[in-house]
Amino acid sequence: MRLLHTADLHLGRQFNGISLEPDHAAVLDQIAAAVAEHAVDALVIAGDVFDRAAPPASAVRQFNAFLARVRAETGAAVVMIAGNHDSGDRIEAMSVMTDTARALIRGTVAAEEPPLILEDAHGPVAISALPFAWEYAAREAFGDESLASPEDVMRAQIAAARAALPEGARWVIAAHGTVAGASVSEAERPLARIGGVETVGAELFDGAQYVALGHLHRPQSAGRPEVRYAGAPLAFGFDEAGEEKSMSLVEIDGVGEVRIAPIPFRPIRGVRVIEGRHADLLKLPLSTDFLRVVLTDEAPVIDAMRRLRAVFPNACDLAYAREMQAPEVKALGGAPRGLDDPLAVIGDFLTQLRGEGPDAAELAAILATLDGLRGREEEA
């Protein structure tokens, strides 16, 4: 059995106010092409299809066209769940007219979790689709007021899914959450209420041959290799700059052994951090990547961002290296200065600001200003 696992598309998202629609179009093309090229039996999308509960109409149309393409051009089944960014009801509505032999789409939590059953030469593979659910929704669905954490919810969902498994079937779970030991990034929303614990233990998934996870944006495994995050197809923050994004091609043999191979995405615009002097950066080749620019100039550069955007139209963030130094490096040396030595205070300030004290012209101007102030004090 061959699966293609992806997640966290976040359709409709922007990067610093810049639309990602063309970037998502390229990503969806690559997913559809991989489904066809590798003749996968099922495409698994593990939540956060959209970036918000009410996505823009263009994002909905984009995703509908993608699903239509997968259906028309491949024989793959589609398994999809809602994530914490999605409207569960919106995702659930997609299942109403779905061919249940080729798709399992789950948006809202339920007390019963019947799997999608696919057959290969070795017998059945059962795929359970467990949508993200807040505790209050799970308590209502399961009639259990003791469900008080993401782990409680996941445990209840897995128990319901396990109860519906056909005997002897190899088992795949699609779920959305934070598994203990995994690495998070800046772009992910917390899944627990303030003061709560949002992680779930990987041992909850014992018995499943493969667990297709969503929510965390870095490709990684948690607990064991087969409990895996495919990661997001695009970088959504500068903490993910330079990371290679991928989807996971998963093969399950007749005895349940799993082989996982990443298929890298090829983004049309990258996310990078560049550093250097302003004048030197302006000489670099034109790039449409999303950039954080760190200037090493000692003094502030006038109109720096506008000039940079002539070369880097998607430059999003500007900082100076001297402002990013550790506090102990920037701290003023020596004993604190008293106000009885204003020249020394000004010199220390300039040294902290730009790495050097006043030059001759600045020193003359400072002395003239101080002399003028002293003259006013004497007249008073």
TrEMBL record:
Residues 269-350 form the Nuclease SbcCD subunit D C-terminal domain. It comes from the Bacteria. The keyword Cytoplasm does not apply. GO terms for molecular function: 3'-5' exonuclease activity; endonuclease activity. CDD domains: MPP_Mre11_N (cd00840). Signal peptide: none annotated. Residues 1-90 form the Calcineurin-like phosphoesterase domain. GO terms for biological process: DNA recombination; DNA replication. SUPFAM superfamilies: Metallo-dependent phosphatases. InterPro entries: Calcineurin-like_PHP, DNA_Repair-Maintenance_Comp, Metallo-depent_PP-like, Mre11_N, SbcD, SbcD_C. SbcCD cleaves DNA hairpin structures. These structures can inhibit DNA replication and are intermediates in certain DNA recombination reactions. The complex acts as a 3'->5' double strand exonuclease that can open hairpins. It also has a 5' single-strand endonuclease activity. Belongs to the SbcD family. Heterodimer of SbcC and SbcD. This is Nuclease SbcCD subunit D. It comes from Rhodovulum kholense.
